[in-house]
Amino acid sequence: MRFSFTNFARIGKWSQQFGNLPERYIERAMNQVYWKNPKGPQYKPNAVLQRKKFKMGVHRPWTMEFKNENMPKTYSPKIFVEPIREWSYFRGDRVEILVGKDKGKQGIIKTIIQERNWVLVEGLNCKLKNLGKDEKKDFEGVYIQEEQPLLVTTDIALVDPSDLKSTEFEWRFTEAGEKVRVSARSGRIIPIPASVEETIDYKSKSTYREQPKDTTTDVVTEITFEPKLCTFEMDIMEKMGIKEDRVPPKSYWY
Amino acid sequence: MGTANKIFNICKLFGNLTVQGSVKTVPLKPFSIVTRSISTSPPLKDLMEFFDQKDKWGGIEVKTGRAWNKEEMRLKSNTDLHKLWYILLKERNMLLTMEQDAKDQVRLFPNPERLDKVEISMENLEAVVRERNKAYHQLETGETGERPGKVTKNAFGLNYYYKMSEYPLPKHMNKKWQQKYRFFKHDKDNEAFLLKYREKLYLNKKRQKARNFNHVIGLLNRFPNMDIAALKQQYPDVDLEKAKRSRKYGGHFVPK
After folding, report:
1. Contact across the interface for A84 and B165, Cβ inside 8 Å
2. Are B112 and B74 contained in the same domain?
3. Which residues are in the KOW domain (chain A) (predicted)?
4. Helix or strand or coil: residue A181?
5. Cβ–Cβ < 8 Å for A18, A199
6. What is the complex's ipTM, to 2 decimals?
7. Of B57, B160, B158, B146, which Cα lies nearest the Cα of B109?
8. Which residues of B touch A37 (CB under 8 A)?
9. By residue range, what is the domain housing residue B177?
């Protein structure tokens, strides 16, 4: 049974992109249905009680961490997210950090969290996180560096490739009709990095390694369709040598 | 893999018994030239076809590609689609079995999105077959040839799509159908219900509107340099001028 997301926070396109999962699976993994009406004339159809508001943090909706963060009957305060007309920051973009202890440093975008207007920049804006601290066993635990999210609206700026300094930009069209980001200072095109295509399964579509159960490209692209004046069932019956000459009795549709 | 192992062992024991029904043994004449014809059917694995390959049992990750899309399926002949349907069906059965087995053993079912990929492919395949059938019926009869239906009101007076069925008796003679299907009949109770139901819908709508209005004021207060065009795009029904006139707009400070 599937329930649509119509009035929920949708998962942004660029947040999903790296995970390379079907949207339908994300819905299924994320949904928390507490009650749904059984089928029958005495019940109002499609009445569903389910969680509508989710806390959208750094964890992806299909992970266990997300489920733990959104346990049933746990609620988080309302979060205001600034509306953005078009998403312009992609994986692999070089950006300069404008706030915090790494202010002025440049880094590469690693993760996009579109629902919060967040990005994680590789190795920058980090916090130390303690793992496995155990006072009973007198173990101090291990510290790891963890990137903290940065707001795309105020905390980062794209870097102009001509002089490697931060710049404002706008979306424009080239003469060929291609949509590009143009640096406001130098007028140079800021190219969209090749790693936009990258997902957890492959670096680019052309370098994807076929798995044993995958259908190979030549089989998929082979054209075997031939137009014929018959329905699917008639064609299959003909191919399998099934002959049907019984006349159905009179019937009524209502 | 408790269940899988058990079935695997049983299959090994009775392997010959289970296959015998479908294999024809032809007695060979002495000194005849034996040529083996090429078999295109997949190897018969009995009940083990409901399980994944043995090397994938208990794995953490099983990598797969994406689902078939409609454009690719439109290139394929009816026979190919027919075969593909059964490949997908078998794969789905296998995945459901593996999922249940993982559940029984309180283990992780690796890559559960495989199920969705197979189901998306099956939906797309069905859509392409219907497309072809519709084209044929419209060319030959001028109708779609789909199962007829209509939007009607149920006993409560709420709209729903009624899928028609085929019956050997006409409607007025079919007492059973008349008892089973009760459509909208105007009466006092129905009227009272619908009045309240519509009031509820109306209030929900009104509350949603008020919520959006307040949310926009909250956004304006928090992000004074916000892109107004984006705001209008996201909340088209909110009157921004009216929102700025509200007493909630602006911070908690003494105006100059």
Report:
1. no
2. yes
3. 88-115
4. strand
5. yes
6. 0.88
7. B57
8. none
9. 154-185
- Check if A168 contacts B (Cβ < 8 Å): no
CB-based contact A210 B133, cutoff 8 Å: no
Residue B230 located in a structural domain: yes
Where along chain A do its domains lie?
A: 13-69, 94-205
Q: What is the count of structural domains for chain B? A: 3
B110 close to B60: Cβ distance less than 8 angstroms: yes
Q: Which of B138, B219, B15, B209 is nearest to A83 (CA)?
A: B219
Does the residue B148 lie in any domain?
no
Chain A nearest-CA distance from B33, in A, is 31
A232/B78 Cβ within 8 A: yes
Kindly report, residue by residue over A41-70, the tens digit of the pLDDT: 788 778 899 999 999 999 999 999 999 999
A91-141 tens-digit pLDDT: 999 999 999 999 999 999 999 999 999 999 999 999 999 998 998 998 999
- Does A216 touch chain B if contact means CB atoms closer than 8 Å? no
- DSSP label at A125? S
Min Cα distance A26 → chain B (Å) is 8
Do residue B129 and residue B52 come from a single domain?
yes
Identify the CA nearest to B205 among candidates B217, B197, A3.
B197
User: Closest residue of A to B67, CA-based?
Assistant: A22
Classify domain A94-205 by CATH number.
Answer: 2.30.30.30
